[in-house]
TrEMBL record, chain A:
The keyword Cytoplasm does not apply. GO terms for biological process: Golgi vesicle transport. Belongs to the TRAPP small subunits family. BET3 subfamily. It comes from Paspalum notatum var. saurae. The keyword Lipoprotein does not apply. May play a role in vesicular transport from endoplasmic reticulum to Golgi. SUPFAM superfamilies: Ligand-binding domain in the NO signalling and Golgi transport. It holds the Pfam family TRAPP. This is Trafficking protein particle complex subunit. GO terms for cellular component: endoplasmic reticulum; Golgi apparatus; TRAPP complex. Homodimer. It is found in: Endoplasmic reticulum; Golgi apparatus, cis-Golgi network. Keywords: Endoplasmic reticulum, ER-Golgi transport, Golgi apparatus, Transport.
TrEMBL record, chain B:
It comes from the Eukaryota. This is Trafficking protein particle complex subunit. Its main location: endoplasmic reticulum. It is found in: Endoplasmic reticulum; Golgi apparatus, cis-Golgi network. GO terms for biological process: endoplasmic reticulum to Golgi vesicle-mediated transport. InterPro entries: NO_sig/Golgi_transp_ligand-bd (IPR024096), TRAPP-I_su5 (IPR016696), TRAPP_component (IPR007194). SUPFAM superfamilies: Ligand-binding domain in the NO signalling and Golgi transport. One of its GO terms (cellular component) is TRAPPIII protein complex. Part of the multisubunit TRAPP (transport protein particle) complex. Keywords: Endoplasmic reticulum, ER-Golgi transport, Golgi apparatus, Transport. CDD domains: TRAPPC5_Trs31.
Length: 207, 194
């Protein structure tokens, strides 16, 4: 059942936005990951970069310390994408984290990637759950070579979720539990709500 | 967690059926991703030329794969071997698959025999991009130029490919022209084949 606050269904939402061929998206993402692997050399560094991260204090190990773009990819995208999502989906304030998770799974994933996720494995407190993806447009044509077995190829997605939720006052931790590229039977990420940040007023101008 | 009797399986990518390429994602998803590609590369370079080269590199990787994929899926495992054939393959087939439409125009350069141009009024990757004044003639179309180069190179048509803004009269936004300059050997071969 769709959340009562969401007037648009996921399908209607996806149909209402401009779309591109998923292969262009997939291959472009692949090109990005490849560039990161070449530039950063360490798989672990790439994982961080894809997800988020690098706040301005962390210097690039190769000496290219640069404050122009301290946060990157997933997180960065999430912080901006959430605006578009709220503007187009007509979703109003979610009452709790459970509803938030449902909205992300049914509407968020659908609106941007054209797929839906299943929300499962809630813990007793209702603060952490799993998103399970059967269809994942990021990974078409992808195989991890032996040298990159530690690569969290889909870290982009976890970064997006973390970034988007942070913009609506929820600090979360997102980790991958299952990854088909590593031989698992599905894509599953675990989202854990760390805390709800009360909104501050007056708002700072450049945050 | 691994279930009993359900060992982790390593599925070879070539054993999977080839997707038919009908799946779509939202344009914004791509635009966000592309913007991150540009931003990340901006942190890795000192000048515009270097930035364009890096975007071209990224595009090249896409082009090489697109060629393989489309030759297999759309052309029944055949690949164009003649100059005009490969150009029209890019202009129609590649463009249609990647950008959802055939390119606006494909022209031969008037001044040089070895130059061809593919022009697009509003290149998909430039749709949400505005280039700051201090970055001069920088064009994110370098990524698309890289795709074209990737296709050409891997099909055996080495070329230098660059992206340029060309102002159109009466329009606020310039169009993007992808300029293709073929290597000498390509033209020699064409001449030999007659």
């Amino acid at each position: 059942m769709p959340p009562p606050t969401a007037p648009k269904s996921g399908d209607a939402l996806f149909a209402s936005v401009d779309r591109v061929n998923a292969e262009l998206f997939t291959l472009t993402y692949g090109a990005i990951v490849r560039q990161l692997l070449t530039d950063l050399e360490e798989v672990e560094e790439v994982n961080k970069q894809l997800d988020q991260i690098r706040d301005a204090r962390v210097e690039y190990s190769n000496g290219l310390a640069d404050l122009r773009s301290p946060k990157f990819l997933g997180y960065n995208i999430g912080t901006r994408l959430v605006d578009e999502f709220l503007a187009k989906s007509n979703v109003s304030r979610c009452v709790d984290f459970k509803e938030t998770a449902d909205v992300i799974a049914k509407l968020g994933f659908k609106m941007f990637l054209g797929v839906t996720a299943t929300v499962t494995n809630w813990d007793a407190e209702g603060t952490s759950c799993s998103f399970v993806l059967e269809d994942n447009p990021l990974v078409d044509f992808v195989e991890l070579p032996d040298t990159c077995q530690g690569l969290q190829y889909c870290n982009l997605l976890s970064g997006v979720i973390r970034g988007a939720l942070e913009m609506v006052s929820m600090k979360t931790e997102v980790t991958w539990v299952r990854d088909m590229l590593r031989g698992d039977d599905a894509y599953e990420m675990r989202v854990k709500l760390i805390k709800q940040v009360p909104e501050e007023y007056p708002y700072k101008d450049d945050d | 967690m691994i279930g009993v009797g359900k060992a982790k399986q390593y599925a070879n990518v070539l054993d999977k059926p080839l997707s038919r390429g009908r799946q779509e994602v939202s344009l914004s998803a791509f635009a966000f991703l592309f913007s991150e590609l540009v931003q990340f590369n901006q942190t890795q370079v000192d000048n515009i030329a270097e930035l364009e080269r890096r975007l071209e590199d990224a595009g090249y990787a896409v082009g090489a794969r697109v060629l393989e994929l489309l030759c297999h899926r759309e052309k029944g495992n055949r690949r164009e071997t003649r100059l005009l054939g490969i150009l029209s393959f890019i202009h129609s087939t590649v463009w249609k698959v990647l950008f959802g439409k055939v390119a606006d125009s494909l022209e031969k350069g008037t001044e040089h025999e070895d130059e061809y141009m593919i022009s697009e009024k509003e290149l998909l990757v430039n749709r949400f991009i505005s280039v700051p004044k201090d970055m001069g003639a920088f064009n994110c179309g370098a990524f698309v130029a890289g795709i074209v180069k990737g296709v050409l190179d891997n099909a055996g048509f080495p070329a230098v490919v660059t992206a340029h803004f060309v102002p159109i009269e009466g329009q606020q936004r310039p169009r993007t022209t992808i300029l293709i300059k073929f290597a000498e050997e390509v033209l020699h071969r064409e001449a030999r084949l007659g």
